[in-house]
Amino acid sequence: MIINEYRVINNCTEEEYQVAQLYATALASKENTGGGEGVEVIKNEPYEKENEKGQYTYKIFRLASRVPAIVKAVAPAGALDLYEEAWNAYPYCKTVLKNGYMKDHFSIVYETLHVNGSRGEIENALKISKEGKNVIIIDIANDKVSPKDYKKEEDPKLYHSEKTGRGPLTDPEWQKSVEPVMTCYKLVYIEFKWFGIQGKVESFLAKTVQTLFTKFHRQLFCWTDKWYGMTIQDIRDLEAQTKEELNAKRNEGDVPVNSLDDM
């Protein structure tokens, strides 16, 4: 098992991030859907348990073309779908990803705490043992992205928000001075129990998770003028519309090209 704590510093408030994250998730889902693959939203509804309440989602990711080649070589057809359950009790969220074929032999579990005014300085924000945990600070402006993922319009070093005046993030130490600011503390557990390839696949998945977090938060910042000023009700309306669009897109067009088949 690999345990990583990712810290993502963002140029927005914690309250703004709640809307921004949901907006960016809806748009990213549409980007990755088409040609028989993509995201299927099964449930998106309020939940309440004990002293916690929030929004529960259950999604299926049909992304067979984007799993490692080494896994595709040994897994039967149709066994590569991922099932995601998420409990969003903002500012705390928990997400569990599993696979029906591998059952308890594969999981990616991450817990996120969103902290207003933080610049990534809080140690052990999610309060677990530090033993065996790697801390990775993601810099959305300066961390390298692959050429296939780079888009000029999604480059925080170039983007300027007309509505808020934020950006571009050209200062190499922007994380220390930018206002407003908040940090996502993401504790990620990655487990792939398959004899002979466990270490290689877990390392690949950890690299992929970091790439996805980096790309997602670059988009989130560069889409500021799209989500800024939206309410949670606006987001719920957008999610309902997106669900219908995803159902249509999965059955038409080509498979999205941003494959993860690097092994």
TrEMBL record:
Q: Which SUPFAM superfamilies match?
A: Bet v1-like
**Domain Phosphatidylinositol transfer protein N-terminal residues, every copy:** 1-244
UniProt-annotated stretches for the region Disordered: 148-172
Instruction: Give start-end positions of Basic and acidic residues composition bias.
Output: 148-165
GO CC aspect terms = cell periphery; cytoplasm
GO molecular function list? phosphatidylcholine binding; phosphatidylcholine transporter activity; phosphatidylinositol binding; phosphatidylinositol transfer activity
**A Pfam family that the UniProt record links to this protein:** IP_trans
Coiled-coil features, chain-numbered ranges: none
Return the Gene3D superfamilies for the record: 3.30.530.20
Record PANTHER family:
PHOSPHATIDYLINOSITOL TRANSFER PROTEIN, VIBRATOR, ISOFORM B
- Stated name of the protein: Phosphatidylinositol transfer protein N-terminal domain-containing protein
The source organism is Mucor ambiguus
